[in-house]
């Protein structure tokens, strides 16, 4: 299964770690990055890219990676170059490469069945499934969200999350769901979930008519009602059809694809440093909040009521734009006021990189969001939801796999390591250290850098032009830092949860070297 080099790494990792709850795992990382080829990508990577391009479009491929040799926060490519990785597979590696806790989970004989048998979880879950959900997922659930649905990836998590609609505990009120498939009947303080079929039965006083059954099959009214989902300019929620209608980060994601006529609100665009522009940023929050209410009322008037909104705590792909605590608190109140379901998309921010498991917890909203989607660092996709969002009929939320139990095994180990080593506190401290250095270095290069910002190590900094940002990324690769951008001119940081101050120091030295070369051009 493993080659000689990988076996030696694994043996070294396991010999340096202990399953004891009192001993932290030790990552035998390289001392520093090391680049040995004259060009990036190197000749072996370029050859593999050319070969791949013969059978698919390989234009997005940066490098071919030797994952057996990669360790911790260091990525090794097929040419033998070692990079400090601040990108972590687009924010999806929680503990670093080849972490001993995950290796132990894979090697444990009692876990073999989970790795070789992938069940259709919706109909035939394994006997350990309930315990895994509690241990790996519900133990870290966002406050107020006590139910869970697993999925395979971020896009399908969002897509299925957009099918649920909450209803407040008013007397005898009905509210349509996000897409129009689930409705909830509320009576007094008891909430009775029912599907659209029963809502329409109540409305008509009889079962669905022949017209209802016929028109729903051709996506027409009255069988398919007109409803809308609000999203925000700059947001990214996936590339499936419904999620893509809520995505507004890059044109290449959307061009040529039909989209729903759904409302798109502005997300705040702040001036930095924040403390120097308090009045401006407050007005920006209020402007966006006013637009949200105006769109809700406009679409209701036009016969396409806004049943829900989806929003990221930090607009990750769109350019690492932040919203303030005030903005999200008021947004939650607007959702409650208009009975709009609030869906927080934590696919990229969830799992700890902001110093909390869930970035929206920084906002201290009076009510929790109605649904929180996740994937990436959580190793499995899915969404948490408030109890009133549970569909009362099977197959409403369904696909063949609904995730993968082997990923729950790995996530369970991640959660244990995070707790044992207090990694969320560490990532908060490392993030403060990183942001302080980003602010210092932007002061050294004011003509190149601006707008340093972040929560935890989920940080970003803007370049004065897209061209400079792209040049910086290429030079950082050459200087031994694997990284990536967001938006048009932003360098983003997506570190593992084991990223430490010493890694920050290595990055800062190479970033300064990169900026000096750019400033001489």
From TrEMBL:
Among InterPro entries, the record links this protein to: Aminotrans_3, PyrdxlP-dep_Trfase, PyrdxlP-dep_Trfase_major, PyrdxlP-dep_Trfase_small
> What cofactors are annotated for this protein?
pyridoxal 5'-phosphate
Keyword Transferase in annotation: yes
Query: What's a Pfam family this protein contains?
Result: Aminotran_3
The alphabetized UniProt keywords are: Aminotransferase, Pyridoxal phosphate, Transferase
On the tree of life, the source organism's domain of life is Eukaryota
Looking up PANTHER family in the UniProt record yields:
4-AMINOBUTYRATE AMINOTRANSFERASE, MITOCHONDRIAL, AMINOTRANSFERASE
Q: Which family does it belong to?
A: Belongs to the class-III pyridoxal-phosphate-dependent aminotransferase family.
Q: What is the protein name for this chain? A: Gamma-amino-N-butyrate transaminase
Protein species of origin = Dermatophagoides pteronyssinus (European house dust mite)
